[in-house]
Amino acid sequence: MADTAPRKLRPRAVALKGIRDRAGNVMAHVDRLCGASELRSADRGLAMELASGVVKRRSTLAAVLRPLLRRPKKRLPAIVSDILHVGLYQVLFLDRVPAHAAVNETVKLAHDVSQGRHVGLINGVLRSAVRLYPDPLDGPPPLGAEIIPKSPNAYYAAPRAIFPDPASDPAGYLAGAYSLPIELAARWIDEFKGLAPASRIAMHANCRAAMTVRPNTLKTDTAALLARFAEAEISAVPHANGLSIVVHDRAEALASDMFAEGLFQPQDATATAAGLAAHPSPGMRVLDTCAAPGTKTTHLAELMNNSGEILAVDVPQKLELIKTNCLRMGISIVSTMSASQLGSLDPRSFDVVLADVPCSNTGVLARRPEARWRFDVKSLATLTGDQRFLATAAAAFVKPGGRLIYSTCSLEDEEGSRVAAYVARKADTLSPVSEKLILPTGASEPTQWRDGGYQAIFEA
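RE: above sequence
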């Protein structure tokens, strides 16, 4: 009988296979492949980093690759281009892999997946890249057509221009050097008042996002959880917000007994701030719309000391995620409801309502690398229509004296202040109290890391 078990792949093969899943969710596919291949923690981390990095830097890698080819105008087979991107990402952007090892391992990958075809080309191109870019230069990347930004404090200088001139074509330069769709690049230059500030936001989107976790205050606190991480030999340090913890090995943390015991929940500091802004108290009645997977729901329950009532609403297929999270964390005050039943609730009957709505995710591109390539004006218009509907629907359930928190993971004005202004006009029982656009920070220092987003508070 033939062996039908899935073939176990090495980390670079896992990354490549995930990257080539152009119709689906690359990172979800890579995660599934890591599990099927039973990769150990370090190899899983490498596969995820390679896939994420190649997706993030796609435009930059293509621009760097072009002058390394003898016939740059000739289109390469897709598999060859993808393999070269995996190799170039390691050579230019991945410090943990020495350049010679990156070349050798990528050549092995090419042998495995292409039966030896194009191996000479791949080997030659990558060795040329190593010679051309032996070491990055120190300092913030200057704005130049020949500058390849590596990090907030390092860059490479190509022998000639490989990106559009930033003076005459700033959007083209930002799109190429920082790997953004041209529409988003042009918007950011306008929104953030220039190429230099837009490039800092774009650099954050290309960095490796810090793994920030929130201690479950029903079971532990920051100091005790840090001690448990130290016991388990998992590197972790306090976050600058004084509440959260930055963990350096995501896979190890999520595989630990501490996670299984519900001692912590992964949550960025910006998302944690949304729960704090709600000011829920024990005994309150709280409505969390668009609640899955329950990250903010569980935080609200902790702030309420697991006393009161929280109704978590989402589409039916996501409700199980909320229940699982609550069970793991020992939370008993949360019940769930399908979004289609929202109309059955009594108006103006909740002390706190949270509307953390689906968005373009432009504030969290470091965590959601594929989101940048889905961005366009048409999809943005659809999202803003949905956001207006969801936010005004949520507003109807805030009781006198209560509050509505509207939040997104977007940096776009259409999804933030314009939706808040729409709610203020339509929901005559609510008054705006405050609003905040949170720019992403901490690209150079994980303990300062914050995703970008928008938060508005209304009171009835």
